[in-house]
Design a protein that fits this description.
The structure holds 3 protein chains of 3 kinds. Chain B is an alpha/beta fold. Chain B folds into 2 domains: 199 residues, 3-Layer(aba) Sandwich (D-Maltodextrin-Binding Protein, domain 2), CATH 3.40.190.10; 153 residues, D-Maltodextrin-Binding Protein, domain 2 (3-Layer(aba) Sandwich), CATH 3.40.190. The two termini of chain C are 53 Å apart. Classes of the chains: A alpha+beta, B alpha/beta, C mainly alpha.
Chain lengths: 361, 361, 411
Amino acid sequence: MPSLRTNGFVRFENVQKTYDGRSLVVKALNLSIGRGEFLTLLGPSGSGKTTTLMMLAGFESATSGEIFLDDELINNIPPHKRGLGMVFQNYALFPHMTVADNIAFPLRVRAIGKAETTERVRQALDMVRMSNFEGRKPAQLSGGQQQRIALARALVFEPKLLLMDEPLGALDKQLREHMQFEIKHLHERLGITIVYVTHDQSEALTMSDRIAVFNDGRIQQLAAPSDLYEKPDNSFVAQFIGENNRLRGVTRALNNGRAEVEMRGGVIVPALAVKAAVGEPTQISIRPERVSLEPQNSEINLEGTVAEVIYLGDHIRIRMQVFDDENFIVKLSNGSARRDFAVGESLRVGWSVEDGRALDV
Amino acid sequence: MKTIANLLLATAATLAFTAAAARAEQITVVSWGGAYTKAQTEAYQKPWMAKTGNSIVSADYNGGLAEVKSQVQSGNVTWDIIDVEPSEAVSGCNDGLFEKLDLTKLPKGADGSDAKADFVPGALLDCAVGTIAYANIFGYDSTKFPGAKPAKLADFFDLKTFPGKRGMKKESKVNLEMALMADGVAAADVYKVLATKEGVERAFKKLESIKSSVVWWEAGAQPPQLLASGEVTMTTAYNGRLFTPMVTEGKPFVIVWDGQQQVFDMWAILKGSKKKDVAMDFISFSTSTQPLADQAKYIPYGPTRKSSAPLVGKFMDGKTDMAPNMPTNPANMGNSLVQSVSFWSEHYDELNERFVSWIGK
Amino acid sequence: MTAVELGTEGLERRLARAERRGKLRAFLLVAPLLAFVLLSFAMPILTLVRQAAYNTLVSANLPETTALIADWKVDAPVPEPLCEALVREMHAAKEVDPAIPSRIATFVNRERAGSLSRVKQVANADIKAPYCAGLAALHDDWAQPDIWRALKIVAPSFSPRFFLQALDFRLQADGSIRSQDSNEALHLMLFRRTLLVAAGVTLACALLGFPVAYLLAHVSLRVSNMLLIIVLLPFWTSLLVRTTAWIALLQQNGVVNDTLVALHIIGEKGRLEMMYNMFATLVVMTHVLLPFMILPLFSVMKGINPNFTRAALSLGATPSTAFWKVYFPQTIPGLGAGCLLVFILAVGYYITPALVGGQSGQLISNIIAFHMQKTLNWPLAAAIGTILLAGVLLLYWLYSRLVGIDKMKLG
C-alpha cells in the first residue's frame, strides 16, 4: 500500500478557495493521493472538506493553486470531461428514470453500443447484488438499495477516481455499518482510488487507508487510522478522533523527548513531548482505556475522586475528578479484578509516560 | 316642573323629526358614471332632493341588463331607476324587467304644451322616458387634413381623398346605417332598406370598402384617445366624448354632424321596485323642461323636450355656447337619423351575428 | 383452522367498524366545505346546462298550443284549433303577466327575425273565430308558414337548439338540422380563434417563464424574493391601467415606435403596427398570465436538488445533455401545471383582447358576455359556456392521460 501512495495520483498544490473574497474556506492545501488509495476527508461541517471534494470534482473552481489528476492539470477542465465517478449525499438517482436507465446513463452519454450497455448494466447490478431491480424507479427502492444503485452508476463507466460525498449519511446505523463494509470490500476488489468525505470518525476509521482531518480550512493531520488514534499531532485531532482525557498544565522542562508538566498544586507529571515548549501552557492527552487504577510500579500515580460509575456491559466507565478535570474518564475492562466503586471514593490513577501526549492548548 | 316640560318638548320634537325622516324616502339611481352622472347629479338629483327631502343613492354600471335581470328574477330588487338606451329599454320591457310607466304623470312643458307633444318622437316608450339624445357622429384631427376637410358622411369612406386609418365601434348598430347613408340612402329610408336582404348586402359591401383601414373600438373613451395618439385620422364617436377634449384641452378635433345618428338615454324603473311611486316622481321631475335644459351645462347632450331647447345656456366654463354643440340643434340635424328601436329589437340578433362573423374574416 | 378464520373475520369486522367511525368523523369535518363546493360550483354548472337545454316559457304558458303545434306537419296548412289555442292562450298569459307575450315573442324572433311585433300583437288584438283568418287579417305573416315554424321550434321544454346554434347549426321546424349560412357562421370560428390565442399565449408564457423561473430558483433568497415581486406586479395593477399602459407603449406614436424612430432603426413611415391586432393580444395576455406559469415552475424547480445536474455532469453528460435529459424532465410537472393554468385562464379572457386586439380581439367569451348583457339570450350564452367548459374538461382529461394529474404541482 505505501508504494501506491508515493506517486501522487491526485495532487493538490497550494490550493486556496474563497467564496466571498474575504475569508478562506480552504487555506494552502497540499495533498497527495496515491493510486488505489482509499482516502477520507474527515472534519466537522464548515471545515473545508466538502469544498475540497467539489474542487476535485470540478463543481467549484480553486481560487489559487493547482490540482493534478494523473499528472494532468485539471483546474480548467469542466466536470463532465474529468471522468470521475461521484456518489452524492441522498444519491441523486434521477427520479424519472428506471434503475437500468440510471446506470446506463453514463454509458449512453459516451455513445456506447446498445448491447455493450446492456451487458455492463447487468454486470454493475450484479456487482452491487441488485439484479432484478432494473425496471424499478428510484422511489420504489429503500435507502440502502438506492445507495447501491448510485454506486453502480458511478462505477459502471470505470472512472479513474471515485468521489463520495457523505454517501451513508441518510442511512440508519445498522445499514450504515453494513454498507461501510460493502464499500470497503468493493474498493479492495476493484482497486479503484476513492476519495471519501464524512464527518463520522468511526466511518473514517473503519474504511480508510489514510485520513485527512480537516479543521478551519487546513489539514490538521494526514495519517493512517491507527496513527491518527494512537499518535494525534495536536489537541484538535486528539479530541476529534475517539475519546480523550485532557489535563492542563505548564511545561517546565524538556529532555529526551519528555516534557515535565506542572499541574495545579505544583505536581509535576511527565509526558511525551509532541507539541510542547518550555514555559508554555500545554495539555496532556490520555486515551481512557490506557489509564489504570491503583497502579503498581507506575511512574505516574495521581489521586482522583470518583464522580460517576456507568456499567456498559463489556466495560465500565468511571468519571473522575483529577486535578481540574471533572470529566476524567477511565474505561475499565469487564474482566478487571475490581468492579464495585462508590461515588466519592478516592482512587489512584496512573498510565505509562508514553501514553500521555503533551499537545498544544 | 319646568325641566319635565322641556324634556317632553324635546321628546316630541325628536319624535316629529323621526317621523319626518321616516316619510323621506331613499331611492337608488343607476347610471353610466363619470361626467355624465355628474351632469345628472347637478341638474336632476340635487334639485329634486332639495324639493322633496328624499335622498338618492347613486350607483354606476357599464351597460347591459344582466344585473337587472338577475335582480328581477331573484326578487331581490335593490336598484330603483336605471339609465338605459332605447334598445335595452325595449328588450327589458319585453322581458318583463321594467315597470310599465304611466306617462300621463309627466308634467306639461314650460311653454304649456302637452307632455306627449313636447317630447321629440321616440323619446317616450312603454317602460322608459328619454332624457337626452346623444349623437353618433364622426370626427377628425384637423391637422391631418391641411387641404380639403371632410364634411360629409361619404368622406369617411373616401380613403383616396382623406387617407388614414378609421376608428369605428365594434358593433353592428350605427355602422350599418352609416354605411347605407354614406352610400346614398336617405335617412328616412335607411331602415326600410336594411330590412331587405339586398340592403344588408349593400351595407356590408360599403363597410368592406374600408375594412382593412379600420381600428375597431370598444369603449367610449377610446375614440378621442385614438385621434390624439395619431392611431387614426378619423373616427366615429359619441359627440360628448370629442366635445370635452376639444373645449377643455383645445384638441384640434372637428365634429362632422352630417348623417348623425341620435340615440336616447332613458329612465326606466325596475320591475318590483319597492319605491315605484317615488321613482316615478323623480322621473317626472327630472324630465321636466328646466332640469333637462340644465344638464346641457355640463355635457353636450340634447334635451328630449322641445321646450327645453331655448333654455340651454353656456357650458360650465362660462364661455362656450352649448346650443351649437347640441345634437338637437337644427343646424346639426341635416340628414340626421334617430336610431330605430323597433327595427333593432327584431333584427339585432341576426345582423349582429353577421357583423361579428364579418369582422372576424 | 376454522377457529383461526373466525377469529380473523371478527378482527376484520372490528377493524372495519373502527375505520368507519374514523371515516365518518373525517367526512363530517369536510362536510361544510363539500356543501359549499356543491352550492357554489356544482349547482351553478348544473343550472348552466339546464338553462341551455330546458325552458318552459312557451310550454307552460301555451300548453295547448305546444301540444297542437307538435303534431302539425310543417308543410300542412295551419289547423284552426291551433290558431284558436294560440289566440286564447296568449290572451290568458297576458292576464297572468303582461310581460309573458313579449317574452314569447322574443323567443320566436330569435328563430325568425321580424316576428317580435307579430307575436306581441296576438295578445293585444281582439280576434274572433275563425281564428286562422283573423290572424291572417292581423298580419299577412300569419298566413305564411315561417312564423309558425319558428313557434314550433321554440315550443318544446327540452330543445337542443341552443347547443346546435352554439356550434353553428340551426334546428329546423321539421326536426332536421342545417348548418348556419356561412356569413352568419360565427361560433366555430371564434372557438377556433380562442383556442389558438390561448395556445399562443401558453407557448409564449412557457418560453418566457421557464428562464425566469430558472433564474428565480437559482439565485439567493433575497434576490429571488425581490424578483418575485416584480413578476407578481401585474396582479396588483388594475386591468384597465395595465391595458392602457400597453397601448401607450405599442401604439403608432407609442414609446416603442418613438424609440425605434429616434434610433433610426425604422423610418417615420415605417412605424410598426403593434396595436389592435393579434400581436397586441398575445403580448398583453402573456404579460398578465406569466405569473401563473412562473409560480408553479418556480416551486418545482426549487425542489430539484442541484446534485441531480452535478451527478449528470460527473457521469460525463455535457451541460446541455444534463439539462435536457435530467433537469428538464423533472420540471415537467410544474410546466404542465403552468400550461394548464395559463391555457384555461386564457380561454376565458375577453376584456383585454377586446381592448387591444382590434378585429382579431373578438373571442368566444365576448360572445358569451354579449348574450348575457345585451341580447339577454341567456340560454345561448349558457350553451356556449357549457361547450367551453366541456372543452376545458376534455383538455384536463387529456393532460391526466398524458402526464398524469397526480404529477401536477401547483406550488
